[in-house]
Amino acid sequence: MHDERRTLAIGNRLGLIAVAATLALLGGCGGAGGGSSAAPDGLEWNGDGSKSQPDWGTPGPTGLDGEAPAKRLLLVLHHDTTVPTGLKIQDELAIRAQVIDLEEGKPAADVAVAYEIIKNEGPNGQKGDASLQTQVAVADGDGEVANKFRAGNVGDVSYTVRLGVEGAEPVTLDVIVSDAPKGSVEVSFSYEGPVGLGSIKVRLMPKTFICGTFTPTANYTNSLADKTVLGVDAKPVFDGLAAGSYFTVIATAKSAAGHLAAAGCRDGVFVIANQKTPATLELYTLPLNPTGTYDVDDYFNFQGALPALGTVGQVIDGIVTLFNDPGKFLIDQIKNLVKLYLGSVIVDVAFGLFEKELAKVITNWVKSDAPDWLKDFFTIGDDLTQIVDNLHLKSKVKISKLQNNYYVQGLQYWDGLVLSWKFGCDKNAPDYDKCGLYTFSLTQIANTQFPQEIIEGKFTASIVNRDDLFIDNHVIKLSYGKLILFVLNEMILKTLTGENTLKGAALKFVNCKSIASAMSGSVLDAVGIEEKDIEQFCTSTVGLLVAPIETWIGTLALDSQLRLSGKAKLVDEDDDLYVDKLTNGEHSGTIEVDGGPGPTFKGTWSGTKIPIQLPPK
What we know:
The protein is an alpha+beta fold. It contains twelve helices and 30 strands. Helix 2 (311-324) crosses helix 3 (326-342), helix 2 packs across helix 7 and helix 10 (502-509) runs antiparallel to helix 12. The radius of gyration is 44 Å and the shape is elongated.
């Protein structure tokens, strides 16, 4: 019985060896005899044209008499291994094999096959420089694997490549790389793009690489050789190339700022023996793709805009005067009141004798004798215009392409408003820069006495010189007057007096009795105006002042808009040709009031692309 089992096991092994030998010969020769033969999928052809499962034997789970267990897989080379495979330098060979599952009797998929060069013997002890594309290849659904063997540049070298997979006997393929006559390729560049180029990386690729598959952003680690030059006038040379062979030359170039800007590819470059083959490589500018959504910060500078705003400008100037020179403001209003009774000519002559000094008296009182909160009110008066003169708007900008790579459209919609007011901040504090920053949402801006209506703005833009974005003239619905009212009512007045209207605040800070007392004994006596008259004038004026000021403030609420154009620099930080940032942005335009053009303004802006949030898997 023991002898029978040994005989059966030996018979099974001999049967497997016979099958392996048959598959190997068929893989190398590709022929088939009569009767039944192995098909490419590992099955057998029958005489009638059908296929059937071959008899793989019955390997047991363990060996007999202490022998190694039978192999579960069979690795078959698709090459003739009876003689070495011959290559020339710089040739490539796809080493193919198939993995068979002996237990299942079919090809084995998703099996990792290891490739290794185990022999490298060159002339006079010099080794060759051949290489494998990868160290491990995974079998496909048909059990097929392939890996490229690159012959390199050294000839007269013998190699042995070993293929191994767990559960199967390894197989080997002998390769002999012979020398060949050599030549060289000299690359020159042709470039007429708008962007200045700095460094250029040139790669020599095998003939199997064609320009139709060239992607400038890819990482070509399988190049035969590469060189980096510093400009388009350079002429890099690749030496020691096999004569009679074809190659492909590719190049990627960076701008002066160090980012991918141009590329080129030329295939079918033929090498002539003992000659330097010229190859001109045309470089073309790579367009940037700015599509996406950006977080944008806009900073508008409205300095100098007030005087040119007409009626609205006069109102704002009046409020600024009230803050900066309260004496002049009150004198002007008293004069206007007195003119109602005495006439303009008489009042101008009378007040012309003392109004500057009188204004000085009032201002000095406000800044020295008035309550602290009132002095604060006038001291920070400059903040009203400073805050709005340097307006910070936060928004989202969505850019999409139109028609081609150089014309886009955009949609800008606002997130909120950031105002800087340093009142109460300690200049010596380490967080002074962050102190006094007030961020308001669009909802907060809308829920006020004079609601601000900031709506989305649409624009078109052109891309020039590859990375310059020029934004066409468009409109932002932003009321500059309402913005000043928002700062005045919701920040300054509310902080200092608890009131969010100028009328409520005025009733708190004007003390006519103290003002009249401060004027006692002044030049007013010379024109027959007594202290009680001034107090009465002041009291009446304060009552009457509220109405016109409120009326003036109402005129600030007139709808206005910003008409502007701009530009920015497109920045691709990771060289994938997609824009990551919008920098060095500039705005210029006019404030339109009552449908007509008004004063000019300028601004700066920048944006950072918002990463696309992929849905969870």
